[in-house]
Design goal:
Elements (H helix, E strand, L loop, with lengths): L35 E2 L10 H5 L2 E2 L14 E3 L9 E5 L1 H6 L4 H6 L1 H4 L3 E2 L6 E3 L2 E4 L2 E5 L5 E7 L2 E6 L14 E2 H17 L5 E14 L8 E12 L5 H9 L3 H15 L6 H22 L1 E2 L21 E2 L24 H16 L7 H27 L7 H14 L4 H13 L20 H20 L4 H5 L9 H12 L4 H10 L34
Parallel strand pairs: 1-5, 2-3
Antiparallel strand pairs: 3-6, 4-12, 7-8, 9-10, 10-13, 11-13, 12-13, 14-15
Helix pairs in contact: 5-15, 5-16, 6-7, 6-9, 8-9, 8-10, 9-10, 11-13, 15-16
The protein binds adenosine monophosphate (AMP) and magnesium ion.
């Protein structure tokens, strides 16, 4: 199992599977009250997506198939008592805003007011969910406000849209905290991601059945303002393609190419670029131990960003078979070790959607899948070699796969193990199992296991020294602080009890993941026993 980490997936030649469209959705949701004007009158939003692509202007939130349009005009539903809980000053700066501006913009960030120039919209897209074509999905609770400084602003949890189906268009505080913290943690780790500008509590309750076991409860509601150059998804292309609306597909493609890939000539070139970016993204996830949890094609970014933080998780022990998502507990399609193969499967779905723009030439699609494999193998090998401070030479793949197999044998904390390597490198070539790595074990490893580990580490030490690696170089590749599931849960529990200090402390820590942060050892601990089977820590439902 562990040997699949570096490899991208099955070798070519891959079957090209075309999807059949099936549109679902019925039921009814309430409509929008009026909005106030924006408190920052000089703030002006615009939207290339809205002005350049066909939209549906009906303002009818009844769930319905939306055809011939890539977005629907919607209005955020105002909330009772918005309060800013977290703001990311560096994201504000990207937008040309100060933290004081963000505070002043709370009515806009809560959906209670509209900025000048804003045409709020819900994007229309489809997607493959858990391997099956799901038809039209769309932004059921995300509302685009427009762009500032080239970045789109989007409110997640701001009320229903025509794509909400039977759901309420809202988000709970716990999932909003998870989205805010993880997008920022990922960014500071260097992983491409959508960002989070602000987390606002709405002052309203939202009812959720956390474990889907017939126990719905009221929870505090919240809205995250997400920020990205674009929220275009693979599924944005899949929907018009599945409906045989080639004219709309062409418009969407022309827009995407000119706005985001102006240097690329055609659909084949864009597909190759998206394949490369996706491959590099997934390689990066693997290297930090991030498990997305729901790699459906509606959650795959055309820009190669980590998108849609739901039941994601961080591997505590190095377990290729682990997924945090309880909805996927049986098949474990989106488990850590399967992410590389799923990334390629998803690129294939995008390629199938783009076939009409590539002269229906399946060889072009197969070439893109090969490109994915090449890009993944290169990126993954480079990342793991950098984490180990050794050369990515002909023997490297076998060498690192030996480590993966060993790490998977007994419960071993991935983050602690890799971070601990710098201390081992500083010492003489190990002749007994290094003390610096012992805290990484969750249990007591047997002598035979330690002996095998020592044999590998001894070879590693020699190679890393020979390659001139330094402890500082290793520490710059192996984070000390990642957003461990139990840390997020601890911050959520405290916030629910009215104490937001843990949340702020955790946000501070994840902004400097590679630095030693004296006094913050708590945030570098392996998973405590209380968190082993606690919902939200080792397993997460999609209820959010
Ligand atoms: P996700 O798995 O979170 O990416 O969501 C899948 C689909 O369900 C997307 O179209 C979401 O917009 C929609 N969705 C999820 N939660 C809600 C909600 N509370 N209200 C409306 N739509 C939702
Ligand atoms: Mg989604």
């Amino acid at each position: 199992m562990a040997r699949t980490i570096v490899r991208a997936g099955p070798p070519v030649k891959l079957p090209v599977r075309r999807a059949a469209a099936r549109v679902t959705g019925d039921g009814c949701v309430p409509r929008t009250p009026s909005l106030h004007s924006c408190p920052m009158s000089h703030l002006h939003l615009s939207s290339r997506f809205v002005t350049q692509l066909p939209g549906d202007l009906s303002l009818d939130n009844a769930p319905r198939p939306v055809k011939g349009a890539l977005w629907s005009k919607v209005a955020p539903t105002p909330v009772a008592a918005p309060r800013l809980v977290l703001c990311a000053p560096d994201v504000a700066a990207l937008l040309g805003l100060t933290p004081a501006d963000v505070e002043a913009l709370v009515p806009v960030l809560a959906g209670n007011a509209l900025a000048e120039g804003s045409t709020p919209f819900a994007a229309n897209y489809g997607g493959h969910q858990f391997g099956n074509w799901a038809g039209q999905l769309g932004d059921g609770r995300a509302i685009g406000l427009g762009e500032l400084n080239g970045y789109e602003l989007q409110l997640k949890g701001a009320g229903p849209t025509p794509y909400s189906r039977r759901a309420d268009g809202r988000a709970v505080l716990r999932s909003s905290i998870r989205e805010f913290l993880c997008s920022e943690a990922m960014h500071h780790l260097g992983v491409p991601t959508t960002r989070a500008l602000a987390l606002v509590k709405t002052g309203e309750d939202v009812v959720r059945d956390l474990l889907y076991d017939g126990h719905p409860e009221a929870e505090p509601g919240a809205i995250v303002c997400r920020v990205a150059p674009s929220f275009l998804r693979f599924g944005t292309f899949e929907l018009p393609a599945a409906r045989d609306d080639v004219a709309l597909l062409q418009k969407l493609f022309d827009f995407t190419r000119t706005q985001y890939f102006p240097e690329l000539p055609d659909a084949e070139a864009v597909l190759h670029e998206v394949a490369r970016r996706t491959a590099r993204l997934v390689a990066h996830w693997q290297a930090v131990g991030f498990v997305h949890g729901v790699m459906n094609t509606d959650n795959m970014s055309m820009l190669g960003l980590t998108l849609d933080y739901g039941p994601y998780g961080w591997t505590d022990d190095f377990n290729p078979g682990w997924t945090p998502n309880t909805t996927d507990a049986r098949e474990r399609r989106y488990r850590y070790g399967n992410q590389p193969a799923v990334g390629m499967w998803n690129v294939e779905r995008l390629g199938v959607a783009l076939l009409p723009l590539m002269g229906d030439d399946e060889a072009k699609l197969e070439a893109a899948l090969l490109e994915y494999q090449r890009a993944f193998e290169t990126a993954a090998a480079d990342r793991w070699a950098a984490k180990l401070g050794v050369k990515n030479d002909a023997d490297f793949i076998g060498f690192v796969n030996e480590l993966f197999a060993w790490l998977g044998e007994v419960e071993t904390d991935m983050t602690l193990f890799f971070r601990g390597l710098s201390a081992v490198l500083k010492q003489a070539q190990p002749t007994r199992f290094p003390d610096a790595l012992r805290p990484a074990f969750y249990g007591e490893p047997g002598e035979a296991h330690l002996a095998r580990g020592l044999a590998w580490l001894s070879r590693w030490w020699h190679q890393a020294r020979h390659a001139g690696a330094t402890a500082a170089q290793l520490d710059a590749q192996n984070p000390k602080y990642v957003l461990r599931n139990w840390l997020a849960q601890e911050a959520i529990d405290a916030a629910h009890a009215g104490d937001e200090s843990k949340l702020r402390a955790l946000y501070q820590v994840v902004q400097r993941p590679f630095d030693e942060q004296p006094g913050q050892e708590h945030f570098a601990q392996k998973r405590p026993e209380w968190a082993r089977n606690r919902p939200g820590c080792s397993s997460l439902s999609c209820s959010s």
